[in-house]
């Protein structure tokens, strides 16, 4: 059973890493939006393409723009932090608890 334990632990660590990386991508996107970045720059296009699907869904569900400030990145980061504090420890506890 230790193989299943290790597999679940590895999945938990991978999910934690991917969530952290995506959070930094969202932060990068937010910083890029503050300046007049070249929309044809490959990095800018990557940041936009990887984050816009989730951010646009959040904007449709929660149309919260106060004074022209878009709060959807902050909401998405809070959702990621929730997943990191709930899903990842739950998976790790499952991995340690299987006998």
User: What structural category do the secondary elements indicate?
Assistant: mainly alpha
State the oligomer: single chain
Report the mean per-residue pLDDT as an integer. 90
Largest sheet: 2 strands, antiparallel
| Count of strand segments | 2
Low-confidence stretches: none
**Helix fraction bin:** over 70%
Overview features:
single chain, 99 residues, mainly alpha, two-stranded antiparallel sheet, 3 helices, 2 strands
Description:
The chain is mostly helical. The chain has one domain (2-97). It is 80% helix and 4% strand. The chain has 3 helices and 2 strands. It has helices at residues 2-34, 42-61, 72-97, and strands spanning 65-66, 69-70. The protein has a two-stranded antiparallel ribbon. Helix 1 runs antiparallel to helix 3 (72-97) and helix 2 packs across helix 3. The radius of gyration is 17 Å and the shape is elongated.
Concise description?
The protein has 99 residues and is mainly α. It has helices at residues 2-34, 42-61, 72-97; strands at residues 65-66, 69-70. It has a two-stranded antiparallel sheet with strand order 1-2.
Give a topology summary.
Elements: H1 2-34, H2 42-61, E1 65-66, E2 69-70, H3 72-97
Antiparallel strand pairs: 1-2
């Amino acid at each position: 059973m230790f193989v299943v334990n290790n597999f679940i632990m590895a999945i938990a660590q991978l999910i934690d890493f991917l969530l952290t990386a995506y959070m930094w991508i969202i932060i990068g996107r937010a910083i890029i939006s503050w300046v007049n970045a070249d929309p044809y720059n490959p990095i800018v296009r990557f940041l936009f393409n990887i984050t816009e699907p989730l951010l646009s869904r959040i904007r449709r569900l929660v149309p919260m723009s106060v004074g022209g400030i878009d709060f959807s990145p902050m909401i998405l980061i809070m959702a990621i932090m929730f997943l990191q504090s709930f899903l990842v420890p739950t998976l790790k506890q499952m991995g340690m608890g299987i006998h």
